[in-house]
Amino acid sequence: MRNKKEKKKKFGFWQWIVFGGIFPIIIVLSVLLAIFSIRGVNIFEEVEKIPVIGSLFTDENSVGTTVEDLENTINDLQAELKNEEAKATQLQSELETKENEIAQLQAENERLEQSVNELQSSNTTTNTDWDSVVKTYETMKPKDAALILVEMDEATALNILAELTEDQLADILEKMSPEEAAQFTDQLADLADNR
């Protein structure tokens, strides 16, 4: 029997803490929570207002705790979304404008390339034709060439004479009258100075 009495009398350190400290605190907090709830006071909101203790119970990562805060956040996000949509629309229209400009420039570039190709082929044809004219005068008798050159346009005659070799030129000028030969020689000299 003595063992039973000794066991009853001996309370451990942890038993004193649990039965003497923790349980009474839990009972007091439960009673206070019930009283505040009956009065319509949300104790958790009230605790957040206390400077030091309130920071322990608030969640700093939360966006907003009230419906008003959430509505404000939603409105801000909707406004930001509208701004971004407007920017996207503007950028889309700028992109379409630039694409149209690029298409126009490409069409203009193709047209110019076609014109250049036509001019080059025309120039090649003109050069070929001109060379054949000069060859014709090279193969003519100097007397016949002189008679024709005197009668034609001076600029054309001068260009033909400028393309001939020195021997052919001398033979043709020899068959011209002295005045005509002097005139063509003078113009050939001016032409040579300008080149």
TrEMBL record:
Keywords: Coiled coil, Membrane, Transmembrane, Transmembrane helix. Residues 60-125 form a coiled coil. Pfam families: MgtE_N. InterPro entries: Mg_transptr_MgtE_intracell_dom (IPR006668), MgtE_N_sf (IPR038076). Residues 129-189 form the Magnesium transporter MgtE intracellular domain. The chain crosses the membrane at residues 12-36. This is MotE family protein. It comes from Fervidibacillus albus. The lineage of its organism: Bacteria, Bacillati, Bacillota, Bacilli, Bacillales.
